[in-house]
């Protein structure tokens, strides 16, 4: 079976490692440390209870994205329609901000959000107009994010326009 060509590590622009896919083990560990535990990111016991209650409700039994395409798939994930920004954010445990999705649709939605966030290194621009590197924070790159081109996560994005093709 042929092997995939090795590529530079996607973890940091300064990493010298070559991998078949994604990040090298060192950059992957650094990223996990930066992300924090699931509890620190807001997925604690209160979230687990809300998630279980939400999925147990018969109204939320099927994926809403699949239903919009006339498919019927069982929901296995609970998605925040508008992403929350930490433990204190009221949207974190707001049932009105939740929607049931199947695993496939949840992965697609997350990938769409990450593609939009890839405009900058880590999604946040500092006051000098540059963004820290995703992993090590030591490398500064000019930001492509400006107030004029910033798009909220809930707004659909034309991916052809982002890539510069029509």
- Average pLDDT, rounded to a whole number, is 77
What is the spatial order of strands in the main beta sheet?
1-2
What count of helical segments does DSSP give? 5
Q: How would a textbook summarize the main sheet?
A: 2 strands, antiparallel
Strand segment tally: 6
Low-confidence stretches: 119-140, 153-157, 161-166
Describe the overall structure:
With 166 residues, the protein is an alpha+beta fold. Among the domains are: 8-37, no CATH class; 40-122. Helix content is 29%, strand content 11%. It is built from five helices and six strands, in the order ββαααββαββα. The longest helix has 15 residues, at 103-117. It is globular, with a radius of gyration of 19 Å.
Structure characteristics:
166 residues; 6 strands; disordered C terminus; alpha+beta; globular; two-stranded antiparallel ribbon; two-stranded antiparallel sheet
Summarize the structure.
With 166 residues, this protein is an alpha+beta fold. It is built from 5 helices and 6 strands.
SSE map:
Elements: E1 7-8, E2 18-19, H1 25-35, H2 45-56, H3 64-68, E3 77-80, E4 98-101, H4 103-117, E5 130-132, E6 140-142, H5 159-163
Antiparallel strand pairs: 1-2, 3-4, 5-6
């Amino acid at each position: 079976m042929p092997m995939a060509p090795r590529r530079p590590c996607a973890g940091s622009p300064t990493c010298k490692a070559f991998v078949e896919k994604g990040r090298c083990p060192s950059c992957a560990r650094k990223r996990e440390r930066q992300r924090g535990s699931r509890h620190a990111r807001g997925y604690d016991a209160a979230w687990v209870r809300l998630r279980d209650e939400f999925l147990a409700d018969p109204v939320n039994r099927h994926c809403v994205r699949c239903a919009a395409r006339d498919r019927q798939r069982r929901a296995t994930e609970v998605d925040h329609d508008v992403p929350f920004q930490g433990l204190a954010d009221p949207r974190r445990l707001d049932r009105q901000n939740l929607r049931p999705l199947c695993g496939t649709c949840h992965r697609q939605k997350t990938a769409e959000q990450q593609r939009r966030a890839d405009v900058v290194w880590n999604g946040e621009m500092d006051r000098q107009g540059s963004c820290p590197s995703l992993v090590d924070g030591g490398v500064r790159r000019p930001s492509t994010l400006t107030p004029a081109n910033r798009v909220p996560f809930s707004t659909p994005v034309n991916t052809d326009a982002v890539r510069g093709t029509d």
